[in-house]
Amino acid sequence: MITVGDFRIGKEEKDIINEVLDSGRISEGKYVKKFEIEFAKKIGTKYCVALSSGTSALVAGLLALIYSGKIKKASKVITTPVTYIATINAIVLCGLEPVFVDISRDNFNITPENIENVLKNSKAGEFSLILPVHLMGYPCDMSVINQIAQKYNLLVFEDTAQAHGTKINGKNTGTFSIMADYSFYIAHNIQVGEMGAIVTDDKNLAGLVRSIKANGRLCDCLECTRKQGICAHQPVDELDNDPRFTHSYVGYNFKTMEFQAALGLIQISKMDEIISKRAENVKKLNERLKNFSNIIKLPYYSPDISYLAYPLILKDTKKISRLKLRKELENRGVETRPLFGCIPTQQPAFNYLKKQYEEKLPVADYVGANGFYIGCHQYITDNDIEHIGKSFEEIFKE
Fold first, then answer.
1. How far is CA 65 from CA 117, 118, 129, in A?
2. Distance (Å) of CA 365 to CA 82, 327, 362
3. Which residues of 14-41 are buried (b: 16+ CB within 10 A; e: fewer)?
4. CATH 3.40.640.10 fits 11-266, yes or no
5. Where in the chain is the domain with CATH 3.90.1150.10?
């Protein structure tokens, strides 16, 4: 099976996991701290906070914006209808209201025009945030989105869960807004199994995220100095309120472990190579499948994109359905996944929004019903690409 994603354990990975075991500490410690330093450096932000997943990073990031007073609780958030559902779950779980705008058929992302169309008809103070998602690694138009945000006095929070290392004019996605989240899920571009991160240049927000991920405890220091006998939160009276067990906010247990962070350090060292190989595979797949571009829309290629996968949209639904095409590919050993359905019209969890958004998100509805993806990961070989090409030839000849 040519898989959608793959993760292979080599000597480096085994050695660093053994280092963690030999250290005698598996909860957050030096490997998590080192990962945070190295990932922030790699992305180009001042701070990084590691969390248990991309979903927890979204929740903690949004709560940090609310607790800091930067956005209002119960306010509206402009976002995309086509994304992994965690994005929208996080918005709703934080007491915010998602407002969906339609997407581009070329890169699956929300467009500045659709954002402005909503905002120009809104009441003052109704919206507080724009949350664009760089889906499948494709970058949103952050320059124009930021101009719109400034015009309407909104903040921007990038969901960069699927775009580690994607660049806009030489600068990494995740650095164009007040904060951004990442996911290191097993099927993603940079992968460790389960882990997430928030990156930001705002020291106070980084500290808030660090507090929220530890059940809102008083400790929000970016660097713990307790071992040196120094604690910024040590009580000065006889109450003996240990800052680790004194809580300033309502939070969650979103801490990660040393194992994931250790694997993340290996991934960071290979990050440029991984991104380059994935982009090379997209270029080769486009060349191999170009004769079928009248039936399936191929993804556009750029060496600046960190591809999560190889997304396709079925154009000729009369010739073949998405379900049949996916089944035929899987029968030939090519694993597939449907592209994420349009949240308010195609996801059962959000059925309560279906009537409100019916026929208002035509591109998202079409992409959600007819989009799918196959793998382009770094372990896919030229022989695999040839097999994929032959598989499509056989299917479309029938």
1. 25, 22, 10
2. 9, 21, 5
3. eebbeebeeeeeeebeebbbbbbebbbe
4. yes
5. 271-397
Radius of gyration from C-alpha coordinates of the chain: 22
What is the pLDDT at residue 219?
72
Reported residue count of the chain is 398
Q: In this predicted model, what pLDDT tens digit does every residue of 201-259 receive, in sequence order?
A: 999 999 999 999 999 988 766 666 666 666 666 665 566 677 778 888 999 999 999 99
Rounded to an integer, what distance in angstroms lies between the CA atom of residue 31 and that of residue 15?
Answer: 13
Model pLDDT for residues 288-336, shown as the tens digit of each residue: 999 999 999 999 999 999 999 999 999 989 889 999 999 999 999 999 9
Question: Which residues neighbour 251 within 8 Å (Cβ) at sequence distance 6 or greater?
Answer: 60, 63, 211, 212, 213, 214, 215, 216, 217
Other beta carbons within 10 Å of 171: 12
Burial class (CB in 10 A: 0-12, 13-18, 19+), 239: exposed
Tokens representing 335 are: 């694993």
Tens digit of pLDDT for each residue in 73-119?
A: 999 999 999 999 999 999 999 999 999 999 999 999 999 999 999 99
Q: If you average pLDDT over residues 43-66, what whole number do you get?
A: 98
Do the bridges between strand 97-100 and strand 310-314 make them parallel or antiparallel, or are there none, so unpaired? unpaired
Domain with CATH 3.40.640.10 in the chain: 11-266
Say if domain 271-397 classifies as CATH 3.90.1150.10.
Answer: yes
Predicted pLDDT at 244: 77
185 φ, ψ (degrees, to nearest 5): -55, 155
